[in-house]
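2024-03-11 09:14:02 INFO queue: dequeued item phosphoglycolate phosphatase, len=217
2024-03-11 09:14:02 INFO validating residues
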Amino acid sequence: MQAVFFDFDGVILDSVAVKTAAFAEMYADHGEAVRRAVVDYHLSHGGVSRHEKFRHFHEQLLGLPMTEALMARLCAAFSDLTLAKVMAAPFIPGARETLAALADRSVSAFVASGTPQAELEAIVLARLGHGVFAEVHGSPRTKVEIVRDVLARHGFAPARCVFVGDAMTDWRAARECAVPFVGVSGPSGHPFPDNTAVVRALSLVALENPSPVTEPA
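2024-03-11 09:14:37 INFO prediction written
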């Protein structure tokens, strides 16, 4: 194993519920049907950046135009609602121990997240300090772009790497990059195909037994 790519929310920190509640709160004034649609879309599009979600909510659900100024206000409000709670969120069981085990074996760990880059860096630094991850990557780049860039720059063989995620966005990124995959299941289950390696707690053993997700023809 040369490298492991980790999503962050729901994989390193148990913080998915924090962001779900924030989206629900931000759209509560638009009625229960919209609020429910927002939550459902958010949960079924884990790993997608908040920018893409806000654009979908306004243009598709509300039929309202999105502007750069509005996007900036929405993202700032979302950060205000979530940042302190994410900073206090518990770790996913086994996350810190698995990261330490990878470091002991000189296996590089990378973050590939939908969280904005600057915010992600601040969270990782506050919760884990320097040096735990070789690199930390967030939006606006997609996870496919992040993984392909890291593979190319470091000369890693995709088949000797692992992607760990909790959403189909992660599974699809692994598939497009021909990187084996391990899914992390939340309290209500997981969205992955039946043949996917899925765990509730992270461990080195789990990473050594991923699903052989291959690039589509």
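2024-03-11 09:14:37 INFO annotate: The chain is about 50% helix and 15% strand.
2024-03-11 09:14:38 INFO item closed
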